[in-house]
Request: fold
Amino acid sequence: MMRGRFLLAAMGVFGAQTLMAAQPAAVSVTIRNYHFTPQTLHIKAGTAVTWTNKDDDVHTVMATSVPFVSGALDTDGVYSYTFAKPGTYFIGCSLHPQMSATVVVE
Ligand SMILES: [Cu+2]
Reply:
């Protein structure tokens, strides 16, 4: 009886670890028609976000609250940033002030 309970508890711990490992560590954002899609992201700390420019025009990806800005992204240009710390990050394009998005890191 005791041994059976221990086995069940051990399986529970194992199951939780499998579940955590299954969470995505990478998320994609598409830039199209001067919009970030999705416009709001909810991610866990440590998640890498990759932006891909699908417009013919050049865009950049920058954040106001952390010091990063991509170079000019041409069509199909890609930029990645890993959000290590929880917080709310406001994302924009340095060339088009009307472009905005939010990344919420938990
Ligand atoms: Cu832009």
